[in-house]
Amino acid sequence: MIRLKSNLNLFIRRFILPTCFAGMLLSVACAPTRTPQAAQSQNPTRIMPIGDSITQADSNHNSYRRPLWIQLRQAGYNVDFVGSNREHFQGSAPLSDFDQDHEGHWGWRVDEILKQIDAWVRTSQPDIVLIHLGSNDIIQGQSLESTIEELRQLIQTLRKVNPRLKMLIAETIPCGEEAQVQQLNRLIVNLAQETNTQESPVIAVNQFSGFNPAMGKDTYDGCHPNESGEKKIANRWFAALKTVLPSP
To answer: Is the CB of residue 90 less than 8 Å from the CB of residue 130?
Structure first.
């Protein structure tokens, strides 16, 4: 969870098969109701969502990963979400009709992700990573300079494992003091430009603009996405992913 410096933090922490009939002369095939699926191949593109509570979500919310998965499959992309985690904070996702593997970790800062990322990536072998990090760093009083340096180290570590890894890094949604969030996002854009290469692209994805953090708008508590917010985040990731994914 994003560790809010208020009582909100304490509150949140407690906080088919179809039937088919055959006739003598003809048969009618029935299709199950499920999330649209793209044709599978031997080599799906492996996507690792990396982040904090905004990526993981709690047991009452599906996270942006569900609408993103549905969009990708409806568009015909053959993808596989990967990561060491399948759980949400305090339980499972409300719905199970999407690929639930991820590296979202409730309340974690960039430095905490950095300590584990090498092992996670070596195990899961992603082709693309989606990074949404920095909110906890701001809320917990970390300097913007140290946060950007840790993100730089994260990119370097990811490339050591896979020199051709494609990285989409979010300008974070509004969570925490807005002026600091905007300043961090400007630094993230600069970082993406500085570290981007043809072999291993680093692309900044604007998740900030148009996201309304007001409770009941795009969040349920002023920080964590509700269904509306999840869809907005998924739409931005999807648009960026189309530029780096193989054609469906």
So the answer is: no
